[in-house]
Design goal:
Distance between the termini: 26 Å
Largest sheet: none
Strand content: under 5%
Order of helices and strands: HHHH
Helix content: over 70%
Number of strands: 0
Shape: extended
């Protein structure tokens, strides 16, 4: 398996686990994951993390803390998007 194939799997893994991808793409991903030890380990780790989050009690935050945290997360996401857009694509195109 190539790093590129694994990177493509990792990019779509959440949608794959949630059953949100087309059946043919799910089949391709399942085939890759089945034969790729690093992807198997990553998928199992992600499934375990999802299970832990679902099992955790919901935190109740006071309104001002909740709003501040949301603002910080949105700012971090916007910064991530900007940094991702600034990177050249692997194919050399835009």
């Amino acid at each position: 398996m190539t790093n590129k194939e694994c990177s493509e799997i990792f990019a779509k893994l959440s949608e794959y686990l949630d059953g949100e991808l087309a059946p043919d793409l799910c089949a391709e991903m399942a085939e890759h994951i089945e034969d790729c030890e690093p992807c198997v380990a990553f998928v199992e780790s992600l499934k375990k993390s999802i299970g832990m989050v679902k099992a955790a009690p919901e935190a109740v935050l006071p309104g001002p803390v909740k709003q501040e945290l949301r603002a910080q997360m949105l700012a971090a996401f916007e910064q991530f998007k900007l940094s991702s857009e600034a990177k050249p694509s692997p194919s050399g195109g835009v």
